[in-house]
Each structure stands twice: as C-alpha cells, then as structure tokens.
Major facilitator superfamily (MFS) profile domain-containing protein
Amino acid sequence: MVKKADMARNKSALSVAASEMSGYTGYDKPTRKLLVSAERKMAVRVLVGVFLTIFINYIDRTNLAFASVQLNADIGLSPSIYGLGSGLFFIAYAFFQLPSNIALDFFGGPLWMSFICFAWGVVAAAFAGIKNQ
C-alpha cells in the first residue's frame, strides 16, 4: 500500500523534474512552480483553440466541396470555373497571410480586424459576379 507521504514526495519530485525539463532551472522553487503552472494552463488553452480552429477549418472546406455540387447546378457554373474561383480565393488567402500579420503589427488589432472584415465582405460579394462563359 502506498502511503500519502510517498505520494506527495513522488508528486513533488515529478513537479521538480518537469520544471527542470522545461528550462526553469535558474529560478527558485516557488517561481519554478508558478512558471510551470502558467505554462501548463497556457498550453491547454492554446491547444484547445488550435484544435477548434482546425476542426472548424475542416468543416468549412468540406462544406465548400458539398456546396459546389448544388451551387454549380443552380447558377450554371462549370466545375472548372468554380474550381478556378475557389482556387484563386485560397491561393490569395495563403499568399497574403504574412503581409497581413505585418500590417496587424503596424495598424493595431481593432483597425486591422475591421479592415479585414470589410475586405472579406467585398470578396464574398464578388463571388456573386462569377458567371459561366
């Protein structure tokens, strides 16, 4: 049978080992514990956000593929025209990520986010102008 004192000793040994592995060896013990705790909380929050973003992105791209079948039939687009439009959209989306982050640093979050929302609306409205040749 494991005693409570042994469990507490093992837990504190694991905590010290974890803090040494994460690179906080130059700090005193209370500061190390605080830093390890903050790192753990941050990692959980960031990972949850990342996984939610990946999941929503997957649903969005799958939804785009499913919508294309009915959309092409409804407005008379050929699959090649629809593919060109969505491909150009995603290529531009990937190409402008770095300049967008630089502009975010320059203009600040609220102003840049409002510009992005406006530009997103313009691009979405431009999709209404796609016509078959």
Summary: The longest helix spans residues 29-75. Residues 79-132 form one domain. The chain has a mean pLDDT of 79. The CA atoms of residues 64 and 86 lie 9 Å apart.
